[in-house]
Amino acid sequence: MSEPAATAPEARPLLGMGLSALEQWAKEHGQAAFRGRQLHDWIYAKGARSLEAVSVLPKAFRDHLAAHPPAGALDWMGRSRELHRSIASDGTTKLLLGTHEGLSIETVGIPAEGRLTVCVSSQVGCPMACRFCATGKGGLQRSLSVHEIVDQVLSVREAMDQRPSHVVFMGMGEPLLNIEAVLAAIDCLCTDLGMAQRQITVSTVGVPRTLPRLAELALERLGRAQFTLAVSLHAPDQALREELIPTAHAYPIEALLEDCRRYVAITGRRVSFEYILLGGLNDQPRHAAALAQLLRGFQSHVNLIAYNPIAEEEFKRPTPKAVEAFRRALQDRHVAVSVRASRGLDADAACGQLRRRLEGSLQPAGPGA
User: Fold this and answer.
1) Residues 119, 126, 133, 351: which is the catalytic one?
2) Would you call 106 a catalytic residue per the annotation?
3) 351 given a catalytic annotation
4) How many angstroms separate the CA atoms of 108 and 192, rounded?
5) How would you classify residue 25: left for phi > 0, otherwise alpha for psi between -120 and 50, otherwise beta?
6) What's the CA gap between 93 and 156, in Å, rounded?
7) In what order do the strands lie in the sheet with 300-306?
8) Which residue among 23, 52, 106, 274 is the active-site one?
9) Which of 352, 349, 314, 312 has its CA nearest to residue 140?
10) For 168-215, how does the pLDDT look when each residue is reduced to its tens digit (9 = 90+)?
């Protein structure tokens, strides 16, 4: 074996690196390029949780690396530790994962016939302060790195013993406040885990002047922008939207829609609008009519979501009758619309609930856990 380099030229976790990057990393550390190919297989196909588990690597090399871990991760592999697992009666599985500095991340595996969707987080906490969201109650702690995002998909794959078919960036955080890491994670999921961009959705509540940038960066970094963009509206007018999403005061709904149109023009992809139905607040026929008027002539699709109650707010879940009436009102006005099925209601379904309920009561498991 060649003598390992005294210091790593780039001390970052291996998870998130592609094949060519791993080959280059191996050579920079005094190894042959094929060691990088071996690492790629062990990281993405085998899901190795620690470098020690990669038995094909020379032990002296592993020992040297163990003595010089990268910053921002538990070890060179870049995996998180599972702190808690909550399984609902419908099979929906929520994981609480621990970072290197003791923060916790929520991710959810949602099984359905012939598919497994992973709902991933892009930040620890969230600065957007949406009133109906448990995550926003605690504010933002930090954005996640690429390896921490990709790790969520691998962790759900392990926990549910099933290959994920879809990924949605609808967990903790605002993806457009972490664009670089989100796009790098999408690249990794597609290139290294074999997913297709069309199987990935990026959800945003809206950040001023970022949608056109997202479109341009996606074309630059990914070569194309085929993932689905889902914009959270939750109201058909600015006043109600500000009541539900305090940060919306800095981003008028007309400006948000104009940025959505620019996104469509740059990418050629339609936008999906998410609308959480809150019983008696934004789920009435007049709201549906106003929403249809707002989106008139727009290349879009509306996804209706029944509210999942959280302890800190007194919003009510809409009745099935109200949900169906809202859907029908949009459909009658020629708006493409669907209703998202509620999953995991008996297992802290709303994003951020599990983390807030268990915050401070869990400690990370040992290495490789």
Assistant:
1) 351
2) yes
3) yes
4) 21
5) alpha
6) 8
7) 81-87, 93-98, 104-112, 115-119, 166-169, 200-204, 228-232, 271-277, 300-306, 337-340
8) 106
9) 352
10) 999 999 999 999 999 999 999 999 999 999 999 999 999 999 999 999
